[in-house]
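Bumping my old thread because nobody answered last time. Still need a sequence for this structure:
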């Protein structure tokens, strides 16, 4: 007869928030806070690249998209803003930036490098020709990682 076993509690790894400064990315952090245990370690990641920036600057700050140093500085501010939101939501976050193209590749790389056990993404559900041409960062992340992904859908407002 086998006696009861004592299992040590499993402490989940950090959450990686793909944060681009959008309202949807903020909503994804808030939604994750509703679903996950408070106090969990997290990273607020802003992926950047010169020219095709890929994020919304804090306070709509203006910068030269051709100047890598300015883009990186703006990305760091966006990531810091995401970390502040994650902290308000109950996480223990750090801000993180990575220069990568395409965006999904930076998200996957950062998640693996920082031992994340969950990636949180907001999805815009682009359809039609725009969705086909732009592709989906969310679909690419899901298809290129074995890390679990929480996909938060864009809020819709019901109008009577």
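Sorry it took so long. Here it is:
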């Amino acid at each position: 007869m086998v006696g009861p076993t004592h299992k040590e509690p499993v402490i989940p790894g950090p959450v990686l928030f793909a944060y681009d400064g959008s309202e949807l990315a903020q909503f994804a952090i808030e939604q994750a806070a509703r679903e996950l245990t408070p106090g969990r370690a997290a990273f607020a990641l802003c992926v950047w690249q010169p020219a095709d920036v890929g994020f919304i600057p804090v306070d709509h700050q203006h910068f030269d998209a051709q100047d890598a140093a300015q883009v990186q500085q703006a990305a760091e501010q966006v990531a810091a803003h995401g970390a502040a939101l994650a902290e308000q939501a109950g996480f223990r976050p750090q801000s993180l930036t990575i220069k990568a193209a395409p965006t999904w590749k930076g998200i996957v790389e950062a998640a693996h490098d920082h031992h994340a056990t969950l990636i949180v993404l907001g999805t815009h559900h682009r359809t039609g020709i725009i969705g086909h041409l732009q592709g989906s960062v969310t679909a690419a992340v899901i298809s290129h990682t074995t890390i679990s992904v929480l996909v938060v859908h864009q809020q819709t407002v019901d109008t009577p």
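The chain is about 35% helix and 20% strand. Let me know if any region looks off to you.
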